[in-house]
Design brief:
Length: 332
């Protein structure tokens, strides 16, 4: 059976070339600033073995997209140039490749695409079955697209790596950001006490999603509000990471999603865990996250919407690093 799928996988792209349909997509033809995000008419991809062809209705922006675009993300732009960015999508299955068992044409799904592949800023994208889950029934495609990468990041850091438990205290830096705002909601669902940092203008918002203690990182020192914490989620790095090491309780864990400083790699203390991680797609975790959205535990937060052709403006907004929740591209 595997050999059959392998042969079909070889034949499909060749067959597809004979009846090539095109689509609109944002394609990078050279690394650079937001202006390299141009709308092009390019061939529609073809679903291979274990893959879905998704008619994309919304794609989210993540800071990593801007790093890939600028040529700063090394292996993450693995496919090389030309390249269609975008790791978060929501849409409708328009074709299924051989071997797909869990999805049918017409299903509404959302997905985080593998970081070495991308392809989300387009009318059609290839989604591996192992990356997808049914879209929550109570969300729009825009809200659904805002979820996968940040929610999987929060899930994997808080639950898989740090093993956050009810009654523990977690410090979430950048609590109003894409990752932070979902991490806050997941930590509260778990029963943890949540301290979060943000600019003052975001504090009401943070309290609204359940934060117990808010800290204005611009005017206050988080050390004055957070001591002996069990877990720190670090999307900031640098001095923020170094200072966070001192407020962990014995046995506590700092998980960085932006890499480790020299002090993080070799902490003064031997009684703490310091871990750096990179999010991975997971259809099973995404399905659990979809359930939590349907139950009202996680509320998607979309702050800015841009049409596909304005991806440049969306990246400019992302690069301000001033936001609340997510930025989404609408794809009609
Ligand atoms: N390793 C991984 O797997 C992984 C996965 C996802 C994301 N990341 C990385 O994690 C970082 C955050 O991602 P994101 O999607 O959450 O970004 P984002 O939504 O763009 O984050 C914006 C937020 O950052 C806050 N912020 C900026 N500087 C801050 C500081 N010094 N202290 C506290 N908050 C600060 C801002 O808060 P105010 O507006 O309140 O000032 C804003 O709300 C990015 O660098 C991203 O590339 C890594």
């Amino acid at each position: 059976m595997k050999i059959l799928f392998f042969l079909i996988g070889l034949i499909l792209p060749v067959a597809g070339l004979c009846q090539q349909t095109t689509m609109q997509a944002i394609q990078i033809q050279q690394f650079g600033g937001p202006e390299v995000l141009e709308l092009h008419e390019i061939p529609q991809p073809i679903a291979g073995v274990g893959e879905l062809l998704l008619r994309v209705h919304a794609a989210a922006i993540n800071p990593v997209d801007t790093s890939v675009r600028a040529g700063r993300a090394g292996g993450l732009s693995g496919a090389g140039i030309p390249y269609v960015p975008g790791f978060d999508v929501s849409g409708v299955v328009s074709a299924v490749g051989p071997g797909v068992t869990g999805f049918n044409i017409g299903d509404e799904v959302f997905a985080m695409l593998d970081l070495r592949r991308g392809g989300g800023y387009a009318e059609y994208a290839i989604v591996k079955e192992s990356e997808a889950a049914l879209k929550p029934t109570n969300t729009s495609h825009e809200e659904a697209a805002s979820i996968p990468l940040v929610a999987l990041t929060a899930w994997q850091t808080l639950f898989e790596i740090a093993d956050l438990q009810a009654g523990q205290t977690v410090l979430i830096h950048a609590g109003a950001g894409g990752v932070g705002s979902v991490a806050v909601q997941l930590a509260k669902w778990k029963g943890a006490r949540v301290i979060a940092t943000a600019s003052e203008y975001n504090h009401d918002f943070l309290r609204g999603i359940g934060v117990d203690v808010t800290v204005d990182y611009r005017t206050q020192r988080f050390e004055d509000f957070a001591q002996d914490v069990d877990v720190v989620l670090d999307p900031i790095g640098g001095e923020t990471q170094v200072r966070s090491l001192a407020i962990l309780k014995q046995g506590g864990t700092l998980v960085s999603i932006v890499g480790l400083t020299p002090e993080g790699r070799n902490p003064d203390r031997s009684d703490i865990n310091v871990i750096s991680t990179l999010v991975q797609p997971s259809s099973s975790q995404l399905a659990e996250i979809a359930q939590l959205i349907e139950q009202g535990v996680i509320r998607p937060i979309v702050n800015y919407r841009f049409p596909l052709q304005d991806a440049k403006l969306a990246h400019e907004q992302s690069e301000t690093r001033r936001s609340r929740g997510k930025i989404v591209l609408q794809i009609e």
